[in-house]
Specification:
214 residues, alpha/beta, Metallo-beta-lactamase, Chain A
Length: 214
């Protein structure tokens, strides 16, 4: 699997170009991201934009990139409402308005998205940071695009936004501990291949400790 990471601004989420055809998350700095994409591919070859959740720092540039490339936009069905809500999308925190575009594809847990080369992304519903947050797992390369559910070194996603739920994010992280992960591509920070399973287990222990879950 070929992965290109883009990070175009301090407050931006990471964006990942996968196999030259799928973009995971888009951040806020639209023009800068388009420039980075076009350094790697003809943007017309982009087929799908997958949003790991509805927050503005992951979704703000999606509509413009979709229109420029012709790519469809996908998000979990439980995050559509939040996507269009100024507070639930966290757009208000950026002094902006929530996106108004209508996603082309509504995702559900367990679905698979082919990305070529005999590889696919499995949709793993991981609510807690948002109601429709997802992670994406590619089993051939054992790669996990973890959105804002878990981060390296035992960090976890916030649950104090609208739609956040501490019990659910703990359950979601436990689900991720069951995967065989070689590389984690987080929504913020640097990817890691350093004993990732242990790092996710540490995130689960951290969640249980913070949220007092037995």
């Amino acid at each position: 699997m070929n992965v290109k990471k883009f990070h175009t601004g301090y407050y931006d989420a990471n964006s990942y170009l996968v196999n030259g055809k799928v973009l995971i998350d888009t951040g806020i700095n639209t023009n800068a991201l388009i420039t980075e994409i076009e350094k790697n591919i003809d943007i017309q070859n982009l087929e799908l934009i997958i949003l790991t959740h509805c927050h503005y720092d992951h979704s703000a540039s999606a509509e413009t990139i979709s229109k420029k490339s012709g790519a469809s936009i996908a998000i979990h069905k439980n995050d559509v409402e939040g996507l269009h809500h100024n507070e639930a999308s966290a757009a208000a925190a950026f002094d902006s308005k929530a996106p108004s575009f209508v996603p082309d594809v509504l995702l559900d847990d367990g679905e698979n998205i082919s990305i070529g080369n005999g590889e696919h992304l499995e949709i793993i519903h991981t609510p807690g940071h948002t109601p429709g947050g997802i992670c994406l797992y590619e089993p051939v390369s054992k790669s996990l695009f973890s959105g804002d559910t878990v981060f390296p070194q035992g960090s976890i996603g916030r649950t104090d936004f609208i739609g956040g739920n501490s019990a659910k994010i703990s359950e979601s992280i436990y689900k991720l501990t069951q995967l065989d992960v070689r590389t984690m591509y987080p929504g913020h920070g640097e990817p890691t291949s350093d004993n990732v399973k242990r790092q996710i287990e540490l995130s689960y222990r951290m969640a249980k400790s913070i949220f007092k879950i037995i």
